[in-house]
Amino acid sequence: MKLYHKVALVTGSSRGIGRAIALSLAEEGADIGINYLDEPTGTNLHQAQQVKEEIELLGRKALVLQADVAEENQVQKMVKDFVSFFGKIDILVNNAGIIRDVTLKKMTREDWEVVLTVNLTGIFYCTFAVISYLRQQGSGRIVNIASIIGQTGNVGQSNYAASKAGVIGFTKSVARELAGKGITVNAVAPGFIETDMLKGLPEERKNQILSCIPLGRFGTPREVAAAVVFLCSEAASYITGQVWNVNGGLYMPD
Q: Strand pairing of 243-246 and 183-190?
């Protein structure tokens, strides 16, 4: 098990890609902090508890942590509770994110600010909250979930594209700052993955996207998680400041 004796905090891990990351890390031996965003229906809490049960069935420890990553005080409390429970932190996966898709002509200031705050400022809050622990122990892994949209842009997603492009720039800068402390910082940029977000697209649009993907299919959350697991492992100890694309060949940077 590649991550035995490691503990990982995964934001936005009650469902989708975050859930797959949490379970995949646990399968490799890590104990997991499952973060979710509280909402009136209680669905996210229920899903987070299900993830906790699945992780415990694997023989690993799990802790459910409610926090809005866009709220600095909640993030600080989440990290404090995590370290109090597990005794340390080895891995942070910044996965939590939202979309508010609308063309620029119709975009409101709120549409812009809420996406930037959750997707980019939230990563700053979470990273800032853990780096003192990682620096003190002289090791650690940070993986930020970016997006192909942050590399290519997309109609109706200028706010989302800007936030994810910012994640990439943030990743490279922090990687340089923390390299001397034995901490690696990388990003994974998924393409079109089979999640609730993709399911909401019209069939015609999904077929258009599929026709452009060289591998001829959408990706799965587990395929994104596999890249994250590798970057969190000792096998990736000499990799930092990189963007790993998991997109079926849809975007092939130089």
A: parallel
Is the overall model pTM greater than 0.90, yes or no? yes
CA angle 201, 206, 212 (to 5 degrees): 145
Catalytic residue among 4, 36, 125, 160: 160
36 included as an active-site residue: no
The dihedral through the CA atoms of 171, 134, 117, 155 has a sign that is positive
Token pair of 240 as six digits: 């930092």
pLDDT digits (tens, 9 = 90+) for 86-130: 999 999 999 999 999 999 999 999 999 999 999 999 999 999 999
